[in-house]
Design brief:
The chain is an alpha/beta fold. Helices cover 35% and strands 23% of the residues. The protein has five domains: 7-95, 3-Layer(aba) Sandwich (Rossmann fold); 103-119 and 182-317, ATP-grasp fold, B domain (D-amino Acid Aminotransferase, Chain A, domain 1, 2-Layer Sandwich); 124-180, ATP-grasp fold, A domain (Dna Ligase, domain 1, 2-Layer Sandwich); 322-417, Glycinamide Ribonucleotide Synthetase, Chain A, domain 4 (Alpha-Beta Complex), CATH 3.90.600; 430-610 and 645-671, Rossmann fold (3-Layer(aba) Sandwich). It contains 21 helices and 27 strands. The mean pLDDT is 89.
Length: 678
């Protein structure tokens, strides 16, 4: 199709719309942009621009007639879809929107009502007439706004009326929705409609940064395809196809945000236009078609039909894994950026969109909004395992350094979330878990993984700075992490830890005893102080933690205790005499609990952690003049599996022991050591 010289009127002129203009121009199209803002970004790249408000259909009609435009297209802006449809109708030009679809997809209230007719569930709501029954926190949003305007996460009943008024001001119809705050899996659903046939183009798992402010969660990334793909295709996809076809949509794109919880898909936001996050870039890189080109052609010819589209469109990404990864910044002045060139030139990266450069400043008013987004990376890899490793590599290399040498990068998407667990469906949803020594090493990783699987985790320790970093990182998860400063040498502190859990949650479902110290000393060299130090943490603290955990678990109808042990518990190396004895005592404690408290539905297992490069082990070896590289080389020769045990080997075992998948496993010696004791 030859589009050279064709005139296209584009409504709206935000940065995302500017990219549509550039694509149109690459096809030989003469692009005219209109927007009330004289300095809008798309105007800077347009062939011609007007300052006519895109909501003013009469003025647009006169201008379009005068310019003799061949087609009209709406940019990335929901409020402009209704005037776009009216203008096309008056000009008798192709339009992907119908009156019915505008009604259904541009007002959140109408959208949920339309979905309900087809059995598509919306996020549960509260009635405006019964505000006293609203459970906080709650999402307060205008029914017909876009770009997050007027949307508030209300955490205080005293502020609820104020937040409702704020939402009303952003709603043309003064209509406000009060939606349940969903702390569960988030999904992005994306359809391409061609000649009346809806095609699911992508289904992705969306991850967000949750905080304790009034701001709604900010996206950290999408991973394609979603782990819920099969369930969605079988149960939900036919409903969407029926709805789209009944609304008379012949061409276009439709983006829908949803949550997944307990087998239910709950929709909450539609977007009847290109998705602002750039999913079309993922589809172009992986599937080979460009929705922007298709929409431009539709505006000028009436059809989005593209050669080979049916074969190219694959929501499973042609067996690849893909992602859009976001990096956010804290408040501050950017002095230096490192690692960006490496990311740009990486073979798995298709596109990079950056918003800040050295010398730019992130101001306080940007925090809590998408204006604090520094970088979006569009990438694809052969599988999710490789994708995960690449994302981890990027996180290790990328640095944004502030004026005082501080790191301005916010916590980003945890690569563990990208793992495609096709085995056991491990879930710790709503379980209450305590982890002693949860601020560092394997304990830290266990806390984050448990929160990712839906648990509410309480970590104990003395390092408040490390603890706060973990708490911040966990805000993207469906579960949570809380820190309780605890000195495990003190039984009163231990009792206070479990009292805190009882007061906050009223029960306990799991306890991991990870805390321990590993000083080196042979039997003949061991001092009384070293012996007391080891036994104080490695067995006495564990004993009294278990005592308090069992008391609370009895009130909770059972639970799971994981005592993290060591291969030293059987005999011990010569230089670990006190440590070996303490771990042997811990093994006896595990069997004692398993035998005598099974009647209370309390399980206890002894997890044998193999030779692992923990912080303590590395520090000890360094004091002995042994580098980490040398340590790993030595371990590789001694362990049958040929390498040291890593946190990633141990944490899944911990999660299994905490989960209901191991409900009949107790009194075991659960060994994860690469065959070290064979």
């Amino acid at each position: 199709m030859n589009l050279n010289g064709k005139k296209l009127l584009v409504l709206g002129a935000n940065p995302e719309t500017a990219n549509i203009v550039k694509v149109a121009q690459s096809l030989g199209v003469y692009a005219i942009v209109t927007d009330y803002n004289p300095d809008a970004p798309a105007k800077k790249v347009a062939d011609k621009s007007y300052n006519i408000d895109a909501m003013d259909v009469d003025a647009l009609y006169k201008m379009a007639i005068n310019e003799k435009v061949d087609g009209v297209l709406v940019g990335v802006a929901d409020p402009l879809i209704a005037p776009y449809q009216k203008l096309c109708e008056r000009l008798n030009l192709p339009c992907y929107a119908t009156k019915e679809s505008v009604y259904a997809f541009t007002n959140k209230r109408c959208f949920k009502e339309t979905c309900a007719k087809y059995g598509i569930e919306g996020v549960p709501e509260y009635s405006m007439e019964q505000l006293n029954k609203v459970k906080l926190p709650v999402i307060v949003k205008p029914a017909d706004s876009n770009s997050g305007k007027g949307i508030t996460l209300c955490r205080s009943r005293d502020e609820l009326l104020e937040d409702i008024e704020k939402a009303k001001k952003e709603s043309k119809t003064a209509t406000v929705l009060l939606e349940r705050y969903m702390e569960t899996s988030d999904l992005s659903i994306y359809y391409t409609i061609v000649e009346g046939q809806p095609y699911l183009s992508s289904l992705s798992d969306r991850y967000t940064l949750r905080n304790n402010t009034k701001s709604t969660p900010i996206c950290l990334g999408d991973v394609f395809p979603s782990k819920y793909y099969k369930e969605f295709i079988e149960r939900e996809h036919p409903k969407y196809c029926k709805m789209i076809q009944d609304l008379g949509v012949k061409n276009g794109v439709l983006y829908i945000s949803a949550f997944y919880e307990d087998g239910h898909f709950y929709v909450y936001d539609p977007g009847f236009r290109l998705q602002g996050g750039g999913f079309h870039l993922v589809l172009k890189a992986v599937n080979g078609f460009d929705q922007r080109e298709m929409l431009v052609k539709m505006a000028l010819s009436g059809s989005m039909q593209t050669e080979h589209f049916k074969d190219a469109n694959d929501p499973l990404m042609h067996n690849n894994a893909a992602a859009v990864i976001w990096f956010l910044l804290k408040e501050g002045l950017i002095k230096k950026i490192e690692g960006l060139d490496y990311i740009r030139n990486h073979p798995d990266v298709s596109y990079v969109i950056e918003r800040f450069a050295e010398g730019d400043e992130i101001t306080l008013d940007m925090i809590g909004t998408e204006r604090q987004v520094f970088l979006r990376i569009f990438m694809k890899s052969p599988n999710k395992k490789i994708l995960r490793n690449v994302v981890q590599d990027f996180q290790n290399r990328l640095k944004v350094i502030g004026a005082n040498g501080e790191n301005l990068l916010m916590p980003s998407l945890n690569p563990d979330l990208i793992e495609n667990d096709e085995g056991l469906n491990l879930s710790l949803k709503d379980k209450i878990v305590v982890i002693s020594g949860g601020t560092k090493g394997v304990g830290r990783q266990a806390a984050l993984k448990a929160a990712m699987l839906g648990a509410n985790v309480v970590i104990s320790g003395r390092d408040e700075k490390c603890a706060q970093q973990i708490v911040d990182e966990s805000k993207m998860f469906s579960g949570s992490i809380t820190f309780k400063k605890t000195d495990l040498h003190c039984t009163k502190d231990i009792e206070s830890l479990f009292d805190f859990v009882d007061e906050k949650f009223g029960r306990l479902d799991g306890f991991i005893n990870y805390a321990g110290i590993t000083p080196a000393s042979s039997l003949v060299e061991c001092s009384e102080k070293l012996f007391d130090d080891v036994f104080s943490i490695d067995i006495k603290a564990a004993f009294f933690c278990c005592q308090n955990a069992i008391k609370l678990m009895r009130k909770s109808n059972g639970g799971s205790i994981v005592l993290v042990g060591s291969t030293h518990h059987r005999r011990g190396n010569k230089d670990r005499a006190a440590y070996a004895c303490a771990k042997g005592a811990l093994f006896t404690l595990s069997n004692h609990i398993a035998r005598h408290y099974a009647v209370d539905k309390i399980r206890c297992n002894y997890l044998v952690m193999g030779w692992t490069p923990t912080d303590g082990e590395l520090a000890l070896r360094k004091s002995q003049g042994i580098s980490e590289a040398k340590l790993r080389e030595e371990a590789a020769k001694a362990i049958p599996m040929g390498r040291m045990t890593e946190a990633d080997d141990i944490v899944p075992g911990m999660m299994y022991l905490l989960s209901d998948c191991s409900c009949m496993l107790t009194g075991s010696e659960f060994t994860l050591n690469g065959g070290e004791l064979i």
